[in-house]
Amino acid sequence: MVQKTPIFNVGQPVVDPQTTFTPASLSSAFQKYRTELATMPMYAMAKAMQHMDYRDGIRYKEHLHEMKGNFQMGNYDKYKKGSGAIEIAQRTLETFFGNCIEPIDPNSIYQSLWGSDVTKGEGLKNVPWVKRICAYIMAQLGEHMYNVMWTAKHDPENTTETAKWFNGYCTLENIEIKAGTMSKEMGNLYQLPENITPDNAEDIINDFFWGDVASGWPGIHGKLRDQRVKVFMNDYTKHCYEVSYQKNHGSLPYNLQFDKAHIEGKDTAELVGLGNVPKNYLSITPKNNILTLWNQRTADETFLVKESKTSHYDVDFLANMFYGEQYRFINKEMLCVARTSAEIAAAKAE
Predict the structure, then answer these.
(1) Alpha-carbon distances of 31 from 158, 240, 258, 304, rounded to whole Å
(2) pLDDT tens digit string along 211-223?
(3) How far, in Å, CA of 239 to CA of 281, rounded?
(4) DSSP class of residue 75?
């Protein structure tokens, strides 16, 4: 007797049994792929991190030291004697410990896949959906971190918002502005004369970089200008610069494209337009001076899924992570930022 092949109802999805999401399957997936899942937040932040330096193994705090002095060789004088003064400035690299605990309903995931037109029939077969779901959750954490990289402000009383978990770059700058270690006099802070628009963007950015006689700003320090630097700005600010450049130089024979990758006249100053950078803000620094700080080494950073303690049908996603940001040095030879007068005044008043 010939055995007949079972006939399924036309239009009904043929679902591979491996797509049944159980607490055990989600938990085992996180254990199996833990190493690569742990890097998913970094991938979500890659748009910015490719222009920054990465430091791992930072658990809570670590210190960097910068030496300053004035030692010069001059014409011979047997009686001369310098001061020999060396100033050692300390900067603290700090990561903040955070966690995420979220309930997940495997049945709702399964039902949403079953009902999706794009995953019917063969679309679900042999697809590692459990791994994809785990990766999506981890990437979401990174996406929220990316959104507030400049604006986050640590508040230990707030345990729910990524924006209150660590200190972003603007917050770190505000601390230095208040302390007087970032100012026009120190050569690492420029006050924007007005908001950046398509009509004035080229002039403002050029004045910031090369100098502005009207305001007495000498431009960024020559040693900073001589390095290969990143010029961080909002992506709309970069667009304004490109529009402004076209308005001013559209007829030049060598002006062959709209997109500008560098400041005109300095191909070592790369324009980096990112959606998470505030508008009316500019920051110039070498890649190795702007740091993202991670741990990713010790056992107190965990990423796992376990059976829920409150529901027989749910699982709990748990993630513990250290993260922080910092500038290696803030002196005028390594960093210069442009801020609005209102932001500078607010930072001083904090």
Answers:
(1) 30, 47, 48, 7
(2) 998 889 999 999 9
(3) 14
(4) S
Say how far apart CA 256 and CA 250 lie, in whole Å.
9
For the entire predicted model, the pTM comes to: 0.81
Contact between 280 and 195 under an 8 Å Cβ cutoff? The reply is yes
3-state helix, strand, coil in the chain (%, to 5): 35, 25, 45
Instruction: Say if strands 53-55 and 266-274 run parallel, antiparallel, or are unpaired.
Output: unpaired
Selection from 178, 121, 134, 94 nearest residue 305 by Cα: 134
Residues 140-158: pLDDT tens digits? Answer: 999 999 999 999 999 999 9
CA gap 94, 59 in Å, rounded: 8
Q: Give the end-to-end CA distance of the chain in Å, rounded to a whole number.
A: 87
Q: Are strands 86-94 and 303-307 parallel, antiparallel or unpaired?
A: unpaired
- Give the integer Cα–Cα distance in Å for 295 and 210: 38
Residue 130 tokens, joined: 């459990």
DSSP 8-class letter at 147? H
**Residue among 58, 57, 59, 137 at smallest CA distance from 100:** 137
Residue 244: strand, helix, or coil: helix
Count CB neighbours of 48 within 10 A: 19
CA dihedral 23, 28, 30, 34 (to 10 degrees): 170
Which SS3 state, helix, strand or coil, does residue 200 take? coil
Q: 193-218 as b/e, with b when 16 or more CB fall inside 10 Å?
A: beebebebbbebbbbbbbebeeeebe
| Whether 291 contacts 55, CB under 8 Å | yes
